[in-house]
Each structure stands twice: as C-alpha cells, then as structure tokens.
Amino acid sequence: MTKTYENQLLQLIGQWFTQLSTYKLEEARKLKKEIDDLLSPIHLPKQIESYYDLVNLKHQLITNEITLQSNFYRSDLLDKDVLETTDRTLKYLHKFMQATILMNNEDYIHSIESLRIAEKSLDYVSRFEQAEFYFRTGYVYYRLDQNITALNYLNRSYHLVRNSIHHDRLKANLSIIKAGILSEAGYDRESIECSEKAVLLSTHEPLTKSMAIRSKANNEFRFGRFNKAAELYLSALNTGNQNKSNVGIKSRFNLAHSWLKMGALDWGKEMLNQVEGEIQNKAQSLSEFTARGIICRELYLHDRPDPIKINMGLSILKEKKLLYELRDVTKELSNFHLHNEEYKLAYYYLDYTNYVVPILGGDL
Amino acid sequence: MLKKLATVGLIVVMAFGFNVALQDNQVADNTVIEPQNKNDVT
Description:
The structure holds two protein chains of two kinds.
Chain A: H1 3-21, H2 25-38, H3 46-62, H4 65-68, H5 88-104, H6 108-119, H7 127-143, H8 147-161, H9 168-184, H10 188-201, H11 206-222, H12 226-237, H13 246-262, H14 265-281, H15 287-301, H16 307-319, H17 323-339, H18 343-360
Chain B: H1 2-31
C-alpha cells in the first residue's frame, strides 16, 4: 500500500466528515460510496481504519440509523487502539461518538465523562462540528436535569449555525430541547412557540418533525391538557417513522398515560399492555419506561397499588440513576396518596428523593 | 362585656386569616407545575 493511496483515503474520509458536519447528506453518501469502493480489504493502517469506523458511525447517526435503533452499537466496541494514535481529530471523534452511543443507551453520566475528554480536542474540528458537539452536550445536561448548563450549550450551538442554510435540522433539535426547558420552567406559551418553530424547521425531516410534535404533546401533558396531549402524541406517532423507533414506544406509553389520566381506562390499559410487551424485547435503553409502566399500571389499573411492585419500579430508576424520572414518579405517587387522604404515604413519596438523591450522588 | 367583644373579634380575625391562608394554598396547588417527560431529538 503506497503513501499516496493512504493520503487519498484520509483526504476523502476528511471530506466525508466535513459533509456530515454540514448536514449535506447526498454528498456524504456519494463520498462514502467512493471510499467504500477504494478500500482495500487487506491490511489498512490502524489509524485509517479507526478514522473510517468513527466517521461511518457519525454517518449512521446523522442518517437516523442509530436514533431508530439505540442498541445498534456497544460503546466498548469503539475501544480499539484508537487512543494510541496522535491524531487529535481522531481522538475527538472517538470520544464524541462513544458519548453519543452512551447517551442513546441513556447512560448520561458516563456520556458526560466522554464529552469532557472530547471537548479538549474541540479546537481541531470545524465550527459546524463544534455546533454538533455543543448540541449533544446540551442534550445530555438537559436529560440530567441540569437545564441552565444545557441552555448555555444550546445557545453556543445555535450561535455557530444561526446563519447556515444547511442546519435546519440541528436548529429544530435545539428548539425541541429549549421547548422542554421552557415548559419545565412553567412558560407554557413560550414552550409551544418553540415547538412550533421546530415543526417549521423540520418540514423536510419527518422524524425530527415527529419529535417536535411530541415536544408539544409533552408540554400539553405537563399543563394537564390530556385530550390535546393524546391528540398530539397520535399525530407524532403518525409522522415520519417514529412509530417504529424507540421513541415511538415512549410516545405510545405517553399516549396510554394520557388516556388513563383522562379516564379512558380501556384504551389506556390496552395501549399499556402493548407497550410493556415491546419494552421487554428492547429492555436495555428503555428501562425508564419499564419502571414507569409498572408504576402506572399499579396506580391506574389496580384497586390498591402493590408496594412491592412500586418498589420494583423505583429500584430500576435508582439503579440507572435516572433522578429526574425518579422525582417525577414519586411526585405522582405522592399525589395519588394525597388524593386518597393517605397523608403518611403521600409525605413518604414527596420526601423520597430528598434522601435518595444524595445517596446516589446527584444534585437536588 | 369588653372582654367578650375582644374574644369574638379575635375569633373572627383568626377565621378570616385561616380562610385567606386556605385560599392561598388552593391557588398554590393549582399553579404547581408537575415535571413530566423529557423531549427527544434526532
């Protein structure tokens, strides 16, 4: 293998990476094909092989293959000898893609660790790639309920792509997270505006559009407008191919939850049964919903919630350190007991995260 | 007589205060925003 051949390959992979950072998918596909045709099956230098694997992973992320199937890759598969190499771009890509896989598996704490290492090499990649990095980092902080830090990263990302005509999808995603943050802070109207902006920005991206509709549904649910929420969850499920993705399972759970809240118990029960069946087949990244499913069933479909089952659900959330979700379900449990005038239990669940969260090492 | 009036007055004030406090609580309860569901992205 000659140096010229290696250089040509590295140059092409570099161009492929740039096209992906600019969201020019057609060009990226063409380059991938060109590189695949060029690749010799025997003895590629380790650095080129790793570079190819990582950019290919990014390609699959951008073309939604990973979003649709979160268990597509295991993060440890990336732990080849990549770190031995001196290429900073490679170091960045390695850690960033590892973080992306971890966030797809809802392992946000470890994802942050990888992101911190990737951030040290951020000066070696283009500003559009930096925007992608800030967006994903903002997303992880948002999922960990560190909304102020998240907002800071989202703004940095937006600043870098605000004038780009190729980054509508990224801008839509930024708006979706911002809508969530506003909604949680109690800004109902502003959150709706943000979700609507995301819908407009994602006209050509059906899956992103369905996430934007889902964000609007989540806001309706949060403010207790369950009819409207159910309508929007259905609309999200019928947009793009969210129905077939992991997020589709979440939306179906949310739909079941909305119906149960509305008092449509038969519909809710049927949908919950369906969702629980699906979750069992894809357990790894949906443990949050396994837990929520167990608790939801006990609260709405049984005369008396079984404390053993409730604890089972709470244990799953504790094990995965899903503190936001833990706060969420214990608040619901507390409200349930308050409604039944069982004040001792209501207080127990209200106070639950106050002593559990510090033990798990999280911030209140 | 004065003592009686003062007691009745005190009871009225306390009842009024309790009612206001109760109303405040109701308002607070209605405005509580429950966290629920994080958004997803592509």
